[in-house]
């Protein structure tokens, strides 16, 4: 969950009258952002609010009530109108640096296991906040997620609700393996089988891109283009795929040397580097799949995240022979609704959250 | 050439009397440091000076005489005593951002080609500065070096002068292929054949390590240990070698997750990450060698650079089956001396530079 919200903003004008059919408040509370959803009893989103009050960016220190302050600023108006609303949250708010730690659930992790792992914290205004735990894949190289588990069950809820979709991935959600990609700061690639998060990889692609462009020599010759340069991006993907044997530590230097030899303009360099990194990520994913006699080519998969970024991944995936990458929208709010319903916070009969 | 000098310092007390037998001043002038050597007519180093006045760190802007100011501060005292001394420089001082650009020499690059490419700039005090060019390997993924070419010919000069050494690498320098590693900010791995720089790779290992530890989430849980933790380092090398299929963008996240699961202390994390990156670098080098039916295992090679860092690489190389990695000392000053001699700046009869 890496969306960054604008400073506290309301996506819809607040109605003058109490929202009589509000049924749930849900929070996607990450490191650098907080997004709040107000649901009706059918799982439709009535209002959303977004702020930059992530757990590392609270309005005041945690020890001085920073979490309560951020919570009140985000959803206080809704609770003033409807004080009895249940509230659920997912993301880094449940980490050791969050409001209260919700210990990781181990893989293979089902939605029921997440519900069982919910931790409650009492807010200053008396409302309990239900925090969804993250997921841990233990072993020699452990992997963790917080927030993505909720998005994944949201994507599965979407597939369950819609029946078999055009690409045939939905029907497989319940029992066959589904591969879900969540591009972003720490990109996740998650294998879901039998409605459980079975295993996953984390690629620090987004954060490494930022560190390279802002804090290494590669950024010094770059100029941000007016609009993304898809050709430069795909050139980077191709180099990573076809010429990437020496690894990403080697290929990234070509961002500079292609500039020095007048083969890449300053404006092309950011997208070329982005293509290199995403190409190496997909090459690494391909190598991990190969260890299980699987491949990206010919596979259907789902993408969750920022639409423009997911479109980049879709183009890159085509270069790896994967032509069926489907963008799942509203996975976050659907997942929050689904887990709240499964936890009995709202009537389960209401079914899957509906997109607004 | 990535050594960082302390603020202007003289390694030996300056003699009260003129140095009557001084024959050459040579500069290793990089991005963040400047190192100066005063040679006698036999190629022995009489004095050295070091400063942080790299080309990106001049005492005043280049347009306001910054290069002359740094030059005078570094070697003015030597030139006051012996105004006729020839002066040679290698490194980023010959780049487009340097004092005067010395265009790259293409691979395969011999010492003669470097001499032919020397560019002269007139200093404010009237002494000409001879700048050694860098080397360019052109192609789809170009590669460049500035400074390392001089160190490499210094290492070969050492091998030529000493005859066959214990590991047998020296005799091969003239005609067979020699692999030379130069660990650092931008690590280079260079294949030399027939006394020419034939091809090379650049791995941004050192700069990526700095960016990851200083500007990503990985650094937040790290504590610098009192002394390097070799076990943690070798654990990282092993993970990269045996479990690195998904690539470095994936494995680096384990620095964090092994911490979260109490399998790696905060003090172990920096060395573990260093091992991961160097392990991936060597894995990438191994893959590049494999494309030419070669391998690291069983090979002899030479290392040039910071001794502690080269020792890390030597330990890591052993994990790749390479047990004959020889540290070449004084490659920089030997290379500067050799190229100056070959350029006729000093008497060629003096032979190879001697280590101090």
From TrEMBL, chains A, B:
GO terms for biological process: D-galactonate catabolic process. Signal peptide: none annotated. Pfam families: DGOK. GO terms for molecular function: 2-dehydro-3-deoxygalactonokinase activity. It comes from the Bacteria. Gene3D superfamilies: 2-keto-3-deoxy-galactonokinase, C-terminal domain, 2-keto-3-deoxy-galactonokinase, substrate binding domain. InterPro entries: DGOK, DGOK_C, DGOK_N. This is 2-keto-3-deoxy-galactonokinase.
């Amino acid at each position: 969950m890496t969306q960054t919200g604008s400073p506290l903003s309301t996506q819809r004008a607040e109605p003058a009258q109490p929202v009589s059919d509000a049924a749930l408040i849900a929070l996607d509370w990450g490191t650098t952002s907080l997004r709040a959803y107000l649901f009706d009893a059918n799982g439709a989103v009535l209002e959303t609010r977004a702020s930059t009050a992530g757990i590392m960016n609270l309005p005041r220190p945690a020890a001085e009530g920073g979490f309560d302050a951020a919570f009140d600023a985000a959803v206080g108006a809704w609770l003033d109108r409807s004080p009895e609303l249940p509230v659920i949250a997912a993301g880094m708010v449940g980490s050791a640096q969050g409001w209260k730690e919700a210990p990781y659930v181990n893989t293979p992790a089902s939605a029921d296991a997440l519900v069982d792992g919910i931790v409650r914290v009492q807010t200053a205004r008396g409302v309990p906040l239900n925090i969804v735990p993250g997921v841990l894949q233990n072993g020699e190289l452990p992997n963790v997620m917080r927030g993505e588990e909720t998005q994944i069950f949201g994507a599965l809820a979407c597939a369950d609700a819609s029946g078999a979709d055009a690409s045939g991935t939905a029907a497989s959600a319940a029992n066959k393996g589904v591969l879900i990609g969540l591009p972003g700061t720490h990109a996740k690639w998650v294998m879901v089988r039998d409605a459980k998060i079975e295993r996953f990889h984390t690629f620090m692609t987004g954060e490494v891109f930022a560190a390279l462009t802002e804090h290494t020599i590669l950024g010094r010759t770059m100029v941000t283009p007016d609009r993304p340069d898809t050709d430069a991006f795909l050139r980077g993907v191709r180099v990573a795929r076809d010429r990437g044997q020496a690894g990403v530590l080697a290929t990234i230097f070509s961002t500079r040397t292609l500039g020095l030899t007048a083969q890449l303009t300053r404006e092309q360099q950011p997208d070329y580097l982005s293509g290199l990194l995403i190409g190496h990520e997909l090459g690494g994913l391909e190598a991990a799949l190969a260890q299980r006699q699987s491949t990206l080519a010919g596979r259907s998969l789902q993408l969750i995240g920022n639409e423009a970024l997911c479109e980049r991944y879709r183009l890159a995936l085509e270069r790896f022979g994967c032509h069926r990458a489907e963008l799942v929208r509203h996975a976050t709010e659907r997942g929050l609704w689904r887990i709240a319903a499964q936890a009995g916070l709202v009537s389960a009969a209401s079914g899957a959250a509906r997109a607004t």
